[in-house]
Amino acid sequence: MLGALVISILYFLDILAGMWAIATLIFLFPLLSFSLFFSFMGKPKEKRAIDITRRRRYVT
Q1: Tell me: the pLDDT tens digits for 1-57?
Q2: What is the radius of gyration, based on Cα positions, of the chain?
Q3: Number of C-alpha atoms within 13 angstroms, CB side, residue 60?
Q4: Is residue 13 part of a domain?
């Protein structure tokens, strides 16, 4: 009788541990994915204008 009680308690604890793992993955995955996305995005690069007046013209 005691063995069946221990086994049933361990069974329910295993179900609770699985639910806890799934819940933490559901809540942590969006946070991690968005933080990685924004860290890899980086800063936008400056667009440098081309100065046309200072180009060298070769006379042939």
Answers
A1: 889 999 999 999 999 999 999 999 888 887 777 777 777 776 666 767 666 666 566
A2: 31
A3: 0
A4: yes
Give a yes or no: residue 54 inside a domain: no
Its pTM surpasses 0.70 = no
The CA distance from 14 to 22, in Å, is 12
Place of tokens 């221990």: 6
6 inside domain? yes
| Count of structural domains within the chain | 1
Report the helix count and the strand count for the chain, using DSSP H and E: 1, 0
Q: If you count them, how many residues does the chain have?
A: 60
Q: Is residue 60 part of a domain?
A: no
